[in-house]
Structure to design on (461 residues):
């Protein structure tokens, strides 16, 4: 019998009783949950064989131990049946023994999709599995619960767009960094962007500045992250964003909790240089396979160790940053905060513009007024700030027309009139459509790399 795990129904009621063994399956494919099932396992070997080609080692190895744990009312027990099922799962999963399975991070990607199980209960399951590992092999593992809240809400290279009480809307690619020797942490976030972007509902983890993994998150649901042993620098990075109506409408993945045993938080310190990009979905790397490592702005840091901040969001327009006097003031306030600890070179890259015509149909003269107001306000804030204005990339739709060319001409003219601090970067000829694009307006991963190289060469000749 196959029964769905429904968030409104307790797992035990769905899947059986202690007298009727059942198995909880965790069905993940490529990190994305695509199924939520429980199986009443009358013949575990048959079930394991039937699903061996469909499910990864997540299910095969963990199945029996999870089932055993739940059906006994969350009591830690060891039975011959459970042991045999684990052995069978190891064989199907392609592992030589329990030791190699437990040492593989995939083994711990255990999520039971049900409202009947809290994050704490999931941690109990993980603790049980780790205890079995320790018993069998005499190796002590950290307990993933009894963790303490360590999140203070202050992230690197970010500002708060809006306080929503239970979470704060922050900038794309905001980072929470710390050193720790812990091997597991528990996080929560509120992912308000569920569809539409390649980074939707994701939080990215870096270990010692190297990409480690991405995790799908659900609103305020606790997620266990298992880390390598030893002292390491951990970066939790919020992903790409969209904001149809500007700052207050920004949706993304917003971190709300980090629980662990011991960390040394990394706070921002004075630095000689920073680049802030005012942009749209291109600047937050929509259509790059992994926006956090392959988007053109992020590549400034990944490839060249530049200190960057992304003051932008999908659907972003110059109108959102400078369409009114209060918006100009707000944008300048954000720049003030972002450059507060920058001691020598301050750089603003303006990539936004294409959506003012492509989405909002803003008249060219009106657009020019917004753009000029933004440039002048930046210069008034700090005359040492260098501004680089990337005019719109080529498009592959009907909005690639005379008006968009007029936008480009006006941006060039604005930069010429402010040549002491503004530099125009011709965007239309950097990429080729369709060769460098994933769709009509967004570069694909290789296109982001090509764009980054061209822009970087101008800013850092």
């Amino acid at each position: 019998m196959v029964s769905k795990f429904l968030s409104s129904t307790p797992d035990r009621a769905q899947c059986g009783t202690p007298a009727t063994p059942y198995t909880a399956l965790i069905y993940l494919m490529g990190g994305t949950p695509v199924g939520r099932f429980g199986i009443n396992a009358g013949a575990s070997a048959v079930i394991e064989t039937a699903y061996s080609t469909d499910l990864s080692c997540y299910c095969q190895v963990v199945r029996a131990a999870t089932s055993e744990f739940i059906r006994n009312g969350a009591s830690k027990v060891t039975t011959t049946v459970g042991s045999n099922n684990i052995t069978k799962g190891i064989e199907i999963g392609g592992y030589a023994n329990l030791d190699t399975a437990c040492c593989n991070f995939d083994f711990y990607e255990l999520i039971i999709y049900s409202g009947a199980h809290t994050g704490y209960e999931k941690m109990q399951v993980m603790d049980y599995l780790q205890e079995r590992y320790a018993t069998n092999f005499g190796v002590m593992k950290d307990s993933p619960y009894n963790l303490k809240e360590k999140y203070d809400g202050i992230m690197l290279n970010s500002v708060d767009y809006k306080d929503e009480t239970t979470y704060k809307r922050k900038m794309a690619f905001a980072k929470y960094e710390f050193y720790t020797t812990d091997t597991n942490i528990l996080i929560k976030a509120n992912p308000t962007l569920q569809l539409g972007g390649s980074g939707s509902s994701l939080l990215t983890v870096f270990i010692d500045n190297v990409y480690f993994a991405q995790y799908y998150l659900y609103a305020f649901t606790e997620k266990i992250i298992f880390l390598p042993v030893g002292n390491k620098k951990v970066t939790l990075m919020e992903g790409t964003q969209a904001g149809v109506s500007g700052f207050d409408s920004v949706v993304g993945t917003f971190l709300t909790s980090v629980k662990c045993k011991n960390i040394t938080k990394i706070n921002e310190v004075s630095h000689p240089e920073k680049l802030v990009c005012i942009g749209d979905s291109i600047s937050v790397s929509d259509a790059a396979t992994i926006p956090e490592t392959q988007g053109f702005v992020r590549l400034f840091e990944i490839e060249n160790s530049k200190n960057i901040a992304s003051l932008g969001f999908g659907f972003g327009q110059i109108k959102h940053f400078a369409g009114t006097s209060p918006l100009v003031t707000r944008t300048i306030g954000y720049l003030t905060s972002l450059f507060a600890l920058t001691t020598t070179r301050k750089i603003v890259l303006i990539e936004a513009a294409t959506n003012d015509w492509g989405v909002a149909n803003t008249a060219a003269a009106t657009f020019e007024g917004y753009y000029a107001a933004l440039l002048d306000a930046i210069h008034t804030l700090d005359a040492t700030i260098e501004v680089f204005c990337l005019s719109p990339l080529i498009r592959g739709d009907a909005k690639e027309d005379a008006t968009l060319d007029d936008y480009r001409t006006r941006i060039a003219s604005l930069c010429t009139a402010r040549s002491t601090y503004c530099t125009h970067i011709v965007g239309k000829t950097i990429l080729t459509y369709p060769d460098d694009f994933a769709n009509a307006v967004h570069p694909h991963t290789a296109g982001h790399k090509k764009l980054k190289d061209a822009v970087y060469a101008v800013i850092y000749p």
Q: What stands out?
A: Residues 1-117, 136-141, 195-199 have pLDDT under 50 and may be disordered. The chain has 14 helices and 21 strands. Residues 31 and 144 are 21 Å apart (CA to CA). The radius of gyration is 25 Å.
